[in-house]
Amino acid sequence: MSQKLLLFYAVECGLKYLILDENKKNSTRDFEKIIETSTGCLVSELLKGTNGHDINRLLNILKYNLRIPPLPTKVIDEKGKPISSEPKELNQIWRYGIECDYAAECKIENMLVEAIKYIQKQIRG
Length: 125
Hints:
With 125 residues, this protein is mainly alpha-helical.
């Protein structure tokens, strides 16, 4: 679990770095000052609160065509169906060790590794 949690945060931080770099800013506090990115997104609105963990939103801002799907958990709702976790909640799922669908979790882990490769490529130019 901790490996996936660290991977999640590495992707989140890397994507935020790319957004800051693209907009010539130095800190995530500067997101409040970014009115629009090259994609026309209002970064300050998109990254407030829990949206700051929304990797799909960060990927969208950067125009990278990768979308992390919801992760089905082993937690059952009142109707007997598994509850899925949104991508921006993955850090909570892995932090608290909530049991998930193994195959879906592996797929998401591989997608996060793909995002890391994208980040590395962008940083290296």
